[in-house]
Write the structure tokens for this entry.
Amino acid sequence: MSELAGKRALVTGASSGIGAAVARELAARGASLVLTARREQLLAEVAEACRATGAAVETIVADLGTADGAARLWAAASARPVDICINNAGFGYFRAFRDADVRRDAELLQLNVTSLVEISRRFVEARGDDAGRAYLVNVASIGAYQSVPNFAVYAASKAFVRNFTEALHDELRGSPISATCICPGGTRTEFHGAAGAGNYGWLANKTMMTAEAVAKITIRAMEKGKRTVIPGVMNKLSCWSVRLVPRRFASWMAGRVLGKPRREALPTRTSAAS
Ligand SMILES: NC(=O)c1ccc[n+]([C@@H]2O[C@H](COP(=O)([O-])OP(=O)(O)OC[C@H]3O[C@@H](n4cnc5c(N)ncnc54)[C@H](OP(=O)(O)O)[C@@H]3O)[C@@H](O)[C@H]2O)c1
């Protein structure tokens, strides 16, 4: 029997990609789920797939790209204790900074940074030291390891998530709560289309992982209370090797691997610019 059986898990960004795969993985281990995202229909489909394995599942439609989104979500989700909190929702915006729509950048920071911090705070505050084992997971990116041209705001948001979560992990050492940062590399999800990206070089395409593989690694890392985990050997190698080269070179290399933004590939699915 998994030690996650009977725990109640909140998963943000559960309507697709890594979040949906994490939800299925938690359901398979006997956790009950609170799944959230904006797209109600997709969320319902993920919930149904999780229920098929016997899990109890609630869904909450919430937009975390808005100033009060995290507070509303927490109010709805925390009627009963949350034991596992997975801050996975996030999006990228692949554009030169001066061509970027300022509203999309503001929404990105709200979702990837501000809402993630607020949910982390509410989760940690709600868990007293005698409330039993609890797990916080924040999803960053290998983009957290260097600056990334044309992903300037996104990569910086993920550097924030990494530094924030690692500091939290250290603060919480010795308490029943662990904080784990997951830094996926390229993963086959809707992320790339939603970012207006995908015109990648050979290496980026070759090293893409599946959402299921990333989800399995995420849950294993969480159970072990790891500090930071980078899924995939090539991704680990790339994050490790940036320590050996000048920061300017690492940034240039990241730009080369991602290719140029395509004018016709407009980012989709943000709330700000509809
Ligand atoms: N795929 C990659 O290559 C990759 C690499 C490194 C890190 N990551 C990170 O992994 C995480 C998951 O991304 P993914 O690859 O699984 O992409 P995805 O399939 O596009 O999933 C993103 C999730 O975030 C939700 N979301 C987006 N905007 C939201 C908003 N305003 N409010 C609430 N939820 C919102 C989406 O749901 P709705 O649209 O239904 O709201 C969706 O469920 C993100 O944090 C991303 O930065 C991805």
